Each structure stands twice: as C-alpha cells, then as structure tokens.
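Suppose a colleague, Dr. K., hands you the sequence of a protein chain of 444 amino acids and asks what its three-dimensional shape might be. Before reaching for any lab equipment, you can write down a predicted structure in token form. Begin with the sequence itself:
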Amino acid sequence: MQTPICDFVKKYIKNNPLRMHMPGHKGYNILGFEEYDVTEFDGADNLYAPDGIIKESEKYASQLFNAHTFYSTEGSSLCIKTALFLAIKNSNCKKPIIFAGRNAHKSFISASALLDFDVVWLQDENAENFLSCNISANYLDCVLSKAKQKPTAVYITTPDYLGCILDVKGIKRVCEKYGVLLIVDNAHGAYLNFLKDNIHPIALGADICCDSAHKTLHSLTGGAYLHISKFANKNLISNAKDALSLFGSTSPSYLILQSLDALNKILSSDYSQKLNDTVLRIEKFKSALTERGYVFYGNEPMKITICAKEIGYTGEQLNELLKSKNIFVEFYDQDYVVLMPTTQTTQKQFEQLQNCLLSIEIRPKILSLPPKTYLPRKAISIRNATFSPCETVSISRAKGRILVDVAVTCPPAVPVIVSGEIIDDFVIERFNYYGITKCKVVKE
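The predicted structure, expressed as tokens, is then:
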C-alpha cells in the first residue's frame, strides 16, 4: 500500500525549498521533526476538501476498514461531534434526541451543548462503576419500545475505558427494528478491525463510528478516523467533510496526517499477525497473574484492567508500586488500574511488567465498593447549563445546586455527573469517592 502524503513531504524536503508559507519555524529544528511539519500549500492538498494526496490516502484507509473513512488530526473528539452533527442533519425531528450510554466521553457532552440536542441516558441498573455501561440488545429494545419519541440516533461507547465490549451486532438489530441510526464511540478499539475475528463496530453494522488511531495503533497523538458504513444514507457520506470542517481546525497537523498515511502501509502488511500474537501473549500474561490471585475486569483482548482491591490495594496504591519500578499506567482510580500494551510492546517488556506484578505481596481483599451508580435529577438542559453564568464552589457547599461543569481529567474524560443535573447527597458521595473537591454550578 502506498503512502502518498509521506512521499510528497519527503520529496519536498529533498528539493530544499525556500519556505514562504506557514509554519513559522521554516523547517529549522527545535525539537528535531520541524522539516516534516508543513501546511496545506499548493500540492499538499486540503484535509476538508481533498482532491489529491490526502484523498488518495483516505481511499487506502477506507479499503482497510471497509468503510468510507476520513482522517482527523484532532482525535476522536472531533469525530464524535461530527458524527452527532451528521445524525441530526439527517433527521427530520424539530428537537433531536440522542439515546446515549451514560459512560459517554466529555466530547459527547460538549456536542450536546453546541448542537442543542436532548439526551436520554441509557444506564444499566446494576452498573458497577461510572465508566462501564452494560447496554444489552434486550435492554435497548425495551427502552425504545416505550419511548414517546423515536431518537435521532443511539450512541454507545465500546470498548469502554475499562475494557468492556458491548454486543454491537445485537444492538444494531434493535436499531434497525426501530429505524434508528447507531453511532459508536470506538476510540479505544481501532485494532478490532484486524483481529482474526473482526469485531470492529463497522463490521458489526454500526452506521457511524470513530476510532482513535493513536490509542491502540501507531499514529501520533491526535490521529483518528471517522468511519461511515458503506450501507449508510448517502447524505451522511456526502456531508462528512463539511461536518468535520465545522468543528475542526483550519490548520490540521501535517505530522499527524503523515503518521496516519504511514499507518496504512503498516496495517496492510503483517500487522494482523502481530496483533493476534500479542493477544495470545496477553492471555498467557493474565493467566499467570490469575494463578497468583489477580482479578481482571472487562473482555477487551488488548486491555489489562486490574481489580486492585481484590489483591488488597486501592488503584492509587497499586499505581505507586508500579511507578516505583518505572512502569507508568494508562489510568487508575480507587478500584482499577488500566494498562494498555500494543503490538509495539516487546516480550521483554511484558516480562518486566509480569515480574513486577508477581513480586507484589497479595493482601486481604478490600471490601469497600464504589458509590451506587444512578441518574441524578435533571433540572435544565446540558446546553442551558453550559451557557449559564456560573461560579465555582467546594463540594461541601454544592448540595442542591445545578451543575455547569466538573473538572474531568483525561483519562478518563467521563463525567460522574452531567451538566444540568442537580447535586444531591449521592452525587456528593460520588465526588468525595473520586477525589473531586470543586465544581462549577449555575450562579444564583
């Protein structure tokens, strides 16, 4: 598979041009990669109106994912907003409604504020934490059958941050039954397309899907894909570039574009074999640690989520033990530690991690559980809350107030309470559990 964007830039550098265009560093090294950092000048094509090398590169990516695939240099966050805009634009509803899994990324909340759609939250009654949302096809069927207004789209996150994969095929069947679009935030699952058994959302029937190429593949940070099914409404496809440009920067990173372009060649070679070998390696890794007493959460093949309390530690304590051995994890909280290996993780590195974890003393199980997961009462819309005058208060003074925004770190960028909801005792308990000390509320 060819790499037209990379080839163009290499040729440009070789010709030693006089750079009378942006960026201002003119190719002179500060960090070492500046000569590759160019912009959309003549011949370099235009990300949101491509007719040359970017169009050709996206065609190769489309072949790999068997979809209409478009590049993002601003992560899945840009793709999420775009997907929701496309769904609304394709809808005849005066006031669009999205039925969404409660563990939606902050970008979804931002999209609701910007696009002014209503949200009906989908939440498993037996959810163990706020990062996972076990939406089954039967549950969704029940919700849609009772809905007074059919939603514009159903929006789910799979895999979620802790590594739980939903039944996309079953959920899609329900969406088809009610004539509803299915949008999937697959930010953590770009690699699923290359498993021996392809379980990528597009392969399972999703209409629109976003992947972060940098999370589990080899792209530079910010590289992502917007996928639209070949069987989707043609309006979704024809409007995709305009929708991306509505939210995206007019100065997309050409470094990230080159990494996405180069990735096509990697994915089309022996990546699948390396991936499936790595999955087997992770299975053996988990098996060895399970014998030691470790317990793992989720069913995603490339994510290692340790239930820390099962071996007598909080997630914070286990993280500190790993950090003391120069091992830095993806995420941790009171209950879990999340590790994200890829095909780039070597056998020696797996052994280093395994030896470290095996050397940790197994202690009596910590019995405390996370606060109950439930839906707080909604006072005003996400949009109205977001644009309301606000003030920052300590959690101890927040009871009864309407949330505007709460500081959400990334990872995981999943809010524990959503803008427009009322802060009650259960919410305060949740804030305290997750170490949130302040929040923004509607000004009285």
